[in-house]
Design brief:
Chain lengths: 258, 252
């Protein structure tokens, strides 16, 4: 019995260390997460999920291993020090936790689990790199600003301020927070939004060079005058509510019901 | 470090409109320093411009107003010594009545302006307080709820200029641009818009500024639009938008 126990322990221990090594994880304790903000900068591909608990869990997937010659050496980066061992630099100051990608790893993807209640800001300014930004399950304020990135939002509530230049924005709202305006802007690509049918909002859709499509019941203001010819569509959903602005300057806007 | 904390507290007080004149002066002196800490840099313009304006502004005070009324009524007093004929008496009475009505209008006008001014002041204080929030959505809401858009006071304009130039979030900056466009031609707004146009990096915001300049029908903006079209790092579509803007403005 004793022997078996020891063996099980040994197997478990090896398994734990092995997975630990493979998963490439970094944990950061955050006391009192609501009211704090997580800022993610220049992470080329990133998925953010909400979880219970007071830790920010960062894991790196399919990153390139360091070459043998690099053994015992620290990776250098023009962007700053990798102080997590997984290619990220993490600093905490006041109510803000800032994470930026120190290693180049243009294809590497990071998964970041965030305590519920923590606000998230994601910024990517890199030229020609920068892939998907995915956020799911967050019911706090969200700010995302990218250039080449496509943004996928799932099961969020906002308020969300999202802008990207070349990528598309797909947002599936669990409900639309009435705390503040939500605004989604893509310059060249598609903005595709799904809302619950009972969403209250003052809607503004702008597609100067594109089209807008919807199956939601949008109430348009009744005016005696002839409607101004304009690419901006104004209306309300379920009698009006928080401001919801959707803009695709050179692309199309799709607004769907859930 | 300690001194910075003090200044930060002052800034907070300033934005909630609770600073005394003395404290505002202290802030202005501080922000004239060359070696500002980076985190305070964004406030510099707002505070210095507000100070600049205060110097320029000449407020109509009560003494001036009464002096004007007296002047007016003195001018209207006919120089007649004897009041023998009845048409003279009647003339004087009519003149007095008219003068009284005029004064009534004047005072009424002044009172209604006063309530409007205080409403604008209140709105401004609220706006400044909300703008110091670290929630971008909150700041966006604050800018989109500005009501006194037809007759903004100078401080409101300065605040919007600062938001348009310094707010870290693009959506908030665009809202400030749209608010300025709605206010029509205002002192300094074309200059501020063209200045922001050449500093702005986000194409969506650049396009919003171009649209605002066209809406303001301001020919003097053509030069800045031309400059934008010469910048290689500006996206082709934005430059096209600037060409369209130049075309529309020249056509006016």
């Amino acid at each position: 019995m004793n022997k078996l126990n020891r063996m099980v322990m040994a197997v478990l221990f090896t398994a734990a260390t092995l997975t630990g090594l493979n998963a490439q994880e970094f944990k950061l304790d955050v006391s009192n997460p609501s009211g704090k903000t997580l800022i993610l900068k220049e992470l080329n591909r990133v998925a953010v999920e909400a979880h219970d608990g007071n830790q920010v869990l960062m894991t790196s997937e399919n990153h390139g291993d360091h070459p043998e010659r690099a053994q015992g050496l620290k990776p250098l980066s023009a962007r700053g020090e990798d102080n997590t061992g997984i290619g990220l630099n993490v600093t905490t100051s006041g109510n803000e936790v800032t994470v930026f990608q120190a290693a180049r790893r243009s294809q590497g993807k990071y998964v970041i689990k965030v305590p519920k209640g923590m606000k998230v800001q994601i910024e990517h300014t890199g030229q020609h790199e920068g892939g998907k930004i995915e956020v799911s399950g967050l019911s706090t304020e969200l700010e995302i600003s990218g250039r080449y990135n496509s943004v996928y939002l799932k099961n969020i509530t906002g308020p969300a301020l999202v802008n990207t230049i070349y990528g598309k924005i797909e947002a599936d709202f669990a409900s639309l927070s009435q705390k503040g305006p939500t605004s989604l802007v893509s310059v060249y690509s598609t903005v595709d939004v799904t809302l619950p049918t009972n969403t209250k909002a003052n809607l503004l859709v702008k597609t100067p060079y594109g089209e807008a499509y919807s199956d939601l019941n949008i109430e348009f203001p009744k005016t005696e005058e002839m409607r101004k010819i304009s690419s901006a569509i104004e209306g309300t959903l379920n009698g009006g509510g928080v401001e919801l602005e959707l803009k695709a300057s050179y692309g199309n806007v799709y607004l769907r019901k859930k | 470090m300690n001194a910075n904390k003090e200044i930060e507290q002052l800034i907070e007080k300033y934005f909630s409109g609770e600073t005394s004149l003395e404290e505002e002066k202290q802030l202005q002196v501080f922000f004239q320093r060359e070696d500002l800490p980076a985190e305070l840099e964004s406030y510099r313009q707002q505070i210095l411009m507000a100070a600049e304006l205060r110097k320029v502004r000449t407020e109509l005070n009560d003494d001036d107003l009464f002096a004007k009324i007296e002047e007016a009524s003195e001018a209207k007093e006919p120089k007649v010594v004897e009041l023998k004929t009845s048409w003279q008496t009647w003339g004087l009475r009519v003149a007095a009545a008219i003068a009284l009505v005029l004064v009534g209008f004047w005072v009424g006008e002044r009172f209604s302006q006063n309530t409007e001014v205080s409403e604008i002041k209140e709105e401004l204080a609220l706006l400044k307080q909300q703008l110091s929030s670290n929630s971008a959505s909150g700041r966006l809401q604050a800018v989109s709820q500005i009501k006194h858009a037809e007759r903004p006071d100078e401080e409101m304009l300065i605040t919007l200029f600062a938001v348009m130039k310094n707010d870290p979030n693009m959506h908030v900056r665009i809202k400030a641009v749209e608010a300025l466009a709605k206010m029509g031609k205002q002192p300094g707004s074309v200059q501020a818009l063209t200045g922001a146009l050449l500093e702005e990096n986000e194409p969506a915001a650049q396009i919003a500024i171009i649209e605002a300049l066209v809406a303001l029908q301001e020919k003097s903006a053509i030069e800045s639009l031309e400059k934008l079209t010469e910048q290689d790092q500006v996206l082709k579509e934005v430059r096209d938008e600037a060409y369209i803007g130049i075309f529309k403005l020249k056509d006016m």
